[in-house]
TrEMBL record:
Residues 283-293 have a biased composition (Polar residues). Residues 168-211, 237-428 form the Oxoglutarate/iron-dependent oxygenase C-terminal degradation domain. InterPro entries: Oxoglutarate/Fe-dep_Oase_C, TPA1/OFD1_N, uS12_prolyl_hydroxylase. This is 2-oxoglutarate and iron-dependent oxygenase domain-containing protein 1. Keywords: Vitamin C. Residues 70-130 form the Prolyl 3,4-dihydroxylase TPA1/OFD1 N-terminal domain. The keyword Ligase does not apply.
Amino acid sequence: MGTEPITDGNLESWLVVLGTGFGFEGFAKSDDLKKRREPHIAALRKVLFEEFRVWLSDVIQVELEPTVDLSCAKYEYTDTLLCHDDELESRRIAFILYLVPPWDESDGGSLDLFSTDEHFQPLQIVSEVVSKHKCRLSVSGWFHGTSVARPSRHVESPLPRSPHIPHDHEILYNWINPIYLEIDAQARIQEEFEDRSEILLKNFLQEKGHANTPVFLLILVVFRHYEKAEEESLPAILKKGMELFRSEALFLLLSNFTGLKLHFLAPEEEEEGEGRAEGSSSKCTQGHISQEGSDSRDDTEDPGQILENENDNQETGSSVPLCAGELRHWTKGCYSLVHDAEVTEFALDLLFFCGCQDWDMESGGFTSYIAKGEDEELLTVNPEDNCLALIYRDQETLKFVKYINHHSLKQMATQHEHTGFWDFSFVYYE
């Protein structure tokens, strides 16, 4: 068409356009190229959106607009683009121009088109780049035209929420490291949590309750992009673990850790704290759970006595704290996504990790918190064995688990008893 083709000689120019910025996708991507003035970019825009667009419109018998939608991306080792539908008003035809060295199927990085289920959700994921020595450089975009009817977007049913399960303080003494049951320790944790809205508690479970946890995680079902345990089929020790995170005693302990109103004994704050949901508490001065000897315990501080007297003391008319949770298995290819229709609200996230000794963040699998509508990452929670992460989020915060890539296979090769790692993932609502 009278325009100089793109050759290996000017690939460097495209790499300069990319710069060094990385988005949450995990690969380098340029901004929209519609205003760039470099000769090779201007020439490609002219070919695609003038001469080629007219020809394409005649072939497919669809009137295409002169809209410019063009960007370039660079994928290197372990980079991948997760499943997406690219649905956006007026998008009609996608194009990709590859600028790569000789490429084999074994290098990964393929464009995968896949089928969907009855809710138009993907049944497979996109291939990541597994070559350590090649760069997958591409220029891509869309031709626009009259919008076509789209199927309604499926909204997933949220995990069911439930109030606490009646359990006295003994369940905490049987599972949790005694240092976290000391009143002074809880006060220090609460002070740090109120300052930062997140905290990581290491060596959270006693070794006797934690050591065997990964070994029994065998009965799992595939649940979208990670594996979710079927609670009815879990061994007894894991059922008891799920009970721990739903127990009334833990609701009270979390109130003491965070100052949130997750139990009726957690007092209402006198003045609403900055950035907290209305009704959430700031300081918790009663109901602390202690591991001291029975002779030294004050009756007013004994959580067992507190829980037994709940029916006599609980305030009437107040909202009931709830929780929702699941036991998840993460291995290569697993991830979670931020959904457009996802409902966000004030909540306390709890993540307890196991089976992830010396986990490398380069493998992915970490939980990323971002501000809704922005690219800024607010917090990253990396899997750490026998650690409890608590994160308080507001209505403008979203989260996802980063895709676990090919790099993780090296670590898994050293763990003969299992692959990947597990987490208890719970959310608590005041």
